[in-house]
């Protein structure tokens, strides 16, 4: 029966890698339960199997992502078996994916202060690979973008669309057109003000040398365009990634929210307004401590 199922996957143009994965996962399940493919299986059988994966008699427990992948393989197999009348019952209908208590937190990645400082060092030291690119111009632009993302919490499209008229250096505030065409105003910290001031002075010098910069209404431009596109910003940020930590523009927005909660003593409403969140529950996600925060808390316990 499994070979019939595999043939069906091939007929539906599933990739060879996917087919191999499904086949292996199904065989592991059947071998663990000591049953044949055409034997009756209940949801209880599946739940007991999941428990055995989480609490094995020998070795380490499987990662939740691996277990969920196997469950997905079983869903596909038993759904096909029921629809094709090979089996009268689909035991996977009552089996949801496993969820980790830290699952939402794992999706929210931010930078520590040490990581941010290290990033600034890499921005300065990373050599320019493209021909015709002024290293000093690229460094100043990239640095200003990183500061703006981190200290104002802009979304990448908000940064791409940010115009010179949106910056008020005198009143030290930034006007941002966010999701749903909602306007918000974010104050500039002294740190951000200085970075933007330096960038605008340098940008004015570039405007005297490059026509597309002179004609651009946007704060940030690319080598050949008056506007630095979303994809261009994403590629620039990713170029500074470390082997074990990929950087994305949204990671800096997460960093802004996390750092602001710490700076405001967990004042969720202030951070919600600054970040432009419509729902305060979105902001509340950042209240959860990272694993390193928890480790530091445990280490801080009295020692005897």
From TrEMBL:
Annotated keywords: DNA integration, DNA recombination, DNA-binding
Core-binding (CB) domain: residues covered:
1-82
SUPFAM superfamilies tied to this protein:
DNA breaking-rejoining enzymes (SSF56349)
Q: What InterPro entries does the record tag this protein with?
A: CB, DNA_brk_join_enz, Integrase-like_cat_sf, Integrase_catalytic, Integrase_recombinase_N, Integrase_SAM-like_N, Tyrosine_recombinase_XerCD
Enumerate the Pfam families for this protein: Phage_int_SAM_1, Phage_integrase
Domain Tyr recombinase intervals:
106-299
Transmembrane ranges? none
| Family classification | Belongs to the 'phage' integrase family.
PANTHER family attached to this UniProt entry: INTEGRASE_RECOMBINASE PROTEIN MJ0367-RELATED, PHAGE INTEGRASE-RELATED
What is this protein's name? Tyrosine-type recombinase/integrase
């Amino acid at each position: 029966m499994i070979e019939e199922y595999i043939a069906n996957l091939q007929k539906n143009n599933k990739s060879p890698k996917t087919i191999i994965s499904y086949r292996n996962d199904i065989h592991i399940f059947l071998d663990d339960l000591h049953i044949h493919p055409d034997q009756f299986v209940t949801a209880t059988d599946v739940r007991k199997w999941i428990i055995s994966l989480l609490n094995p008699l020998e070795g380490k427990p499987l990662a939740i992502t691996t277990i969920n992948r196997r469950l997905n393989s079983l869903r596909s197999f038993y759904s096909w078996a029921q629809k094709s009348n090979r089996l009268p019952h689909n035991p996977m209908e009552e089996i949801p994916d496993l969820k980790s208590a830290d699952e939402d937190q794992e999706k929210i990645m931010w930078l520590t202060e040490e990581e941010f400082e290290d990033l600034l060092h890499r921005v300065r030291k990373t050599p320019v690979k493209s021909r015709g690119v002024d290293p000093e111009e690229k460094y100043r632009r990239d640095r200003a973008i990183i500061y703006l993302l981190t200290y104002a919490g802009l979304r990448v499209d908000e940064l791409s669309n940010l115009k010179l008229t949106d910056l008020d250096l005198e009143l030290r505030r930034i006007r941002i057109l966010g999701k749903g065409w909602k306007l918000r105003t974010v104050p500039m910290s002294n740190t951000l003000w200085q970075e933007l001031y330096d960038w605008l002075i340098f940008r004015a010098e570039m405007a005297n040398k490059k026509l597309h910069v002179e004609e651009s209404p946007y704060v940030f431009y690319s080598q050949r365009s008056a506007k630095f596109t979303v994809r261009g910003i994403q590629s620039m940020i990713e170029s500074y990634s470390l082997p074990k930590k990929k950087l994305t523009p949204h990671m800096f927005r997460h960093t802004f929210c996390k750092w602001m909660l710490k700076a405001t003593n967990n004042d969720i409403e202030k951070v919600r307004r600054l970040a432009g969140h419509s729902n305060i529950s979105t902001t509340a996600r950042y209240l959860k401590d990272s694993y390193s925060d928890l480790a530091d808390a445990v280490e801080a316990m009295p020692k005897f």
